[in-house]
Amino acid sequence: MMNNLCFNRIFITFENSFNFTNSNQWMATKTESLEEFYRYKFHNLSENLKHDTGHFNVFNIEDRIRSGTVSPAYIRRDFYKIMLFRGNNVFHYGDESIPITGNTLLFFNPQVPYTYDALTPDTSGYFCVFKDEFFKENLRLSLNELPLFAPGAKPVFSLSLDEYMEVSSLFEKMVREIDTGYIYKYELIRNYVSELIYYAMKMQPSVVSFQHPDASSRITSVFTELLERQFPIESSAQRFNLRSPKDFAGKLSIHVNHLNRAVKKTTGKTTTDHIFERLTSEAKAMLKHTSWNIAEISYLLGFEDQAHFNNFFKKQTKINPSAFRMV
Questions:
Q1: Claim to verify: residue 63 and residue 191 sit in the same structural domain
Q2: Residue 206 pLDDT
Q3: Same structural domain for residues 168 and 234?
Q4: Cα(154)–Cα(94) distance, integer angstroms
Q5: Within 10 A of 321 (CB to CB), how many other CB atoms are there?
Q6: DSSP assignment, residue 279?
Q7: What percent of the chain has pLDDT above 90?
Q8: What gap in Å lies between CA 284 and CA 281, rounded to an integer?
Q9: Is 10 inside any structural domain?
Q10: Is 143 in the same domain as 255?
Q11: Are residue 195 and residue 314 in the same domain, yes or no?
């Protein structure tokens, strides 16, 4: 079990798989949304996305093979994916190719483009997809603070048979639970995913050394750390102060245009996108899990007045703060 870990991270160059002479192709600037993922894979929108009940789903790989789903394009996705893979393949992740054999657990994050070779008929396993807010609204857990989802991380774990059975059982529980009418099913599923994440983190070496591939990645990493450092807001003495790209650029002692280019190049999203998404997630958490009134929340999140906060929140979520709090 955990004392006899088999940690496999075999990386080879992309020379035999892709020709990234075109820098635009290399950066994979297009980002696939979760909504596009469902329309592309299933030709419709997931019910849990329609009703905003957690942005989570789980799938059986064998079902996807039978349906004729092809391997994805080499692009970023705006959601996280965890995959339990049984078979042989090559996963193309960032600027590297990762050959895998046998039982493998893989983690993918929105900051890195990826794809994999065509699946063979004997491939099996599971994968789940979810958005960051699946955790932030409830546990206030920031996924990109975890080593598994850190910028530049490529966590690929080769599993023993016992480890495979243990991880497989968690996916099987998710598959069974997702179709039930249990009112707290997403809370239960969230616990299964958390167990899966922390199980894998126990498999990490005690010291993980990562070298950022370029200056843009380093700048993005520091920007993300500064953004996350302001959350969660747990007392009225705190206030969200770094609210604009210019604020962050000042802290980093770089020009705001340099920051914006670096973040866009590394993540495929603008600096403002990241700030607004994190601000919205914290607003949702505060509305659901604190007793502060909306005026207090708007002040703590750095808005000039409640009206500005109401307009921002409704623009981001299509619902006003009062209505969201009552859901």
A1: yes
A2: 33
A3: no
A4: 9
A5: 21
A6: H
A7: 37
A8: 5
A9: no
A10: no
A11: no
- Residue 127: closest CA among 52, 161, 77, 182: 77
* 190 and 242 housed in the same domain: no
State which of 202, 223, 242 marks the end of a domain.
202
- My answer on whether 238 and 322 are in the same domain is yes
Model confidence at 260: pLDDT above 90: yes
Cis omega before residue 232 (within 30°)?
Answer: yes
Q: If DSSP codes are grouped into helix, strand and coil, which group holds residue 302?
A: coil
Per the CB < 8 A criterion, the answer to whether 62 and 124 are in contact is yes
Whole-angstrom Cα distance, residue 186 to residue 192? Answer: 10
Domain span holding position 28: 23-202
Residues 61 and 195 both lie in one domain: yes
Q: How many domains does the chain have?
A: 2
Q: Kindly give the pairing relationship between strand 124-130 and strand 96-100.
A: unpaired
**CATH number of the domain residue 29 falls in:** 2.60.120.280
| CA distance readout (Å), 17 to 21, 149, 169, 268 | 13, 24, 34, 23
Pairwise CA distance, residues 162 & 277, whole Å: 39
Q: How far apart are CA 200 and CA 107, in angstroms?
A: 9
| Distance in angstroms (rounded) separating the CA atoms of residues 324 and 313 | 10
Q: Cα–chain-centroid distance for residue 231? A: 17
Contact 20, 95 (CB under 8 A): yes
Residue 24, pLDDT score = 34
Which residues make beta-bridge pairs with 130?
Answer: 56, 80
Would strands 31-32 and 76-77 be described as parallel, antiparallel, or unpaired?
parallel
Of the pLDDT bands very low, low, confident and very high (cuts 50, 70, 90), residue 236 is confident
Residues 160 and 221 in one domain: no
